[in-house]
Amino acid sequence: MAKLVLKFEGSVLKEYPLQKGSVTIGRASTNDIVIDNLGVSGHHAKLILEEDHFVVEDMNSLNGTFLNEQRVRRSALKSGDEILIGKHTLAYVEEGAITDISAPPVDKTQKIQLGGDETVVLDTKQRREMLAKATSIATEGSSPAAKEKVGCLIVLDGKSEQREYILTSKLCVIGKDSMATVKLKGWFAPKVASIINRRDTYYEIAPSDKAGATKVNSEVLTAVRKLNEGDLIQIGGLKLQFYFRE
After folding, report:
1. Residues 138, 92: Cα–Cα separation, whole Å
2. DSSP string covering the chain, please?
3. Hey, which residues does 56 pair with through a beta bridge?
4. Longest dimension (CA), the chain
5. Cα-flanking dihedrals φ and ψ of residue 145, to 5°?
6. Rounded distance between C-alpha atoms, residue 181 and residue 165, angstroms
7. How many alpha carbons fall within 13 Å on the CB side of residue 61?
8. How do residues 67-109 score in pLDDT, each as one tens digit?
9. Which of 26, 62, 125, 130 counts the most CB atoms within 10 A of its CB?
10. Cα(204)–Cα(198) distance, rounded to whole angstroms?
11. Which of 137, 149, 241 is closest to 201 using CA atoms?
């Protein structure tokens, strides 16, 4: 019988015997394997039994599913494979196979409450390296039109009407103005703090007339600059992170 061994930072948290043909993994309580971590989507991935082997399949998760440090959409599993979901690892073990799971089980949980069902974008060195390695896999078999990336902003801290903004328009205004895409709250919030412009293959952010209203990666925005994956935008108490969604 096959099983999954859930680990976090090298410590074994729990073992899950794979006793049925489909097993779901995610942060929502309705999953078969619940991982309570903000880097994990509500319904992140699933395992499916196909004939005599299991297959792991990503369920359009925000941070992706990685198999042996390669981002995958769907892939067959063999004993000893490691699935990375958020910051947790699920080791796939088949009965009778030799594996190295030496760390003793510990009673360890990781619960971070943010409110709602939003998933935080992981901004770790490990994730950036894995995403770089996975470029060819993520675009395999896609047409040029399918490869177009859409910029998004996710709220990490502060008050906002939405927890996530998908930047499909050519222009996104951040400010207190009634026409702003990302509306700021508070008496002293600027009418227009900054503007994000969508170009053909990238996004730019420009400051408003009010100097110092916007910071990007803790630096005051004083001129137009290109936005890169993972950039942090801060206006007053509102903190946003920019990322791409295909």
Report:
1. 22
2. --EEEEEETTEEEEEEE--SSEEEEESSTTSSEE---TTS-TT-EEEEEETTEEEEEE-S-SS-EEETTEEESEEE--TT-EEEETTEEEEEE-TT------SPB---------SSS--PPP--HHHHHHHHHTHHHHTTT--GGGG--EEEEEEEES--S-SEEEE-SSEEEEESSTT-SEE--STT--S--EEEEE-SS-EEEEE-SSTTS-EETTEE--S-EE--TT-EEEETTEEEEEEEE-
3. 47, 75
4. 67
5. -65, -35
6. 8
7. 33
8. 998 889 999 999 999 999 988 999 999 976 544 444 444 443 3
9. 26
10. 7
11. 149
CA distance 118 to 37: 11
CB burial of residue 50 (10 Å; 0-12, 13-18, 19+): exposed
Q: Provide the token pair at 198.
A: 């969508």
Give how far the C-alpha of residue 17 lies from the chain's centroid of Cα atoms, to the nearest Å: 27
Q: Amino acid letter at 54?
A: F
Buried b (16+ CB within 10 A) or exposed e, 213-229: bbbbeeeebeeeeebee
Q: What is the pLDDT of residues 106-160, one digit of tens each?
A: 443 343 344 455 666 665 555 556 555 555 444 454 444 445 678 999 888 888 8
Whole-prediction pTM: 0.47
| Chain position carrying tokens 């958020």 | 86
